[in-house]
Specification:
Length: about 180
């Protein structure tokens, strides 16, 4: 098994994020998975292995302040979707895991500087406890599920995003609009 779970985050309004911020996030969150997958492919094919890519709910929907992070996770979702069709011929099973936010050192750092809009928008789905993320991910892999969303609340939110995208966007816009914010100068 190969778990592609490396990640970095840059949060902020688009106009405050630099090209270097975008490159750093894409390099780790997307190209890191591409590079590890490429290196592991011969071994996974020889052993009938599994590739598990850890993306995010932010890879399924836009989130205020996550233009860099969300873009990289969207790319990882697309990459994984393509591999889902390509790799079974080599005997490799592919899994996509999209957790909502959960407690990690990366999230603790994010909490020290995140925008109020991002906090409110992201936490519309309450944080999933780490033990549930791990248990639901392992259970999904054992059951050969391609698409795994750990946590009941997160699964319900993702179902709503997928079945009712226009309504989900309207709700997201309302959540963000409740905070009065001014554009940076």
């Amino acid at each position: 098994m190969v778990f592609n779970n490396a990640g970095v985050m840059r949060e902020g309004r688009f106009e405050t994020l630099t090209d270097d911020d975008f490159r750093a996030v894409m390099q780790t969150n997307f190209f890191g998975a591409v590079n590890v997958t490429r290196a592991a492919l011969p071994h996974l094919g020889a052993t009938g292995g599994r590739l598990i890519n850890i993306a995010s709910v932010a890879g399924l929907a836009g989130i205020f302040g996550f233009t860099a992070y969300g873009s990289a996770k969207h790319a990882l979702v697309g990459f994984t979707e393509c591999l889902h069709y390509e790799l079974p011929r080599q005997g490799i099973k592919v899994h996509l895991v999209c957790p909502a936010e959960f407690e990690t050192p990366m999230v603790a750092e994010l909490d020290s500087y995140r925008t109020p809009e991002n906090r409110r928008h992201t936490l519309a789905i309450p944080r999933t406890p780490l033990d549930i993320v791990v248990a639901d991910t392992l259970r999904g892999i054992q059951r050969d599920r391609y698409f795994i969303v750990p946590g009941g609340r997160a699964r319900l939110a993702v179902l709503g995003l997928r079945l009712f995208p226009s309504i989900a966007r309207q709700l997201g816009a309302r959540i963000v609009a409740k905070l009065e914010w001014k554009r940076p100068a």
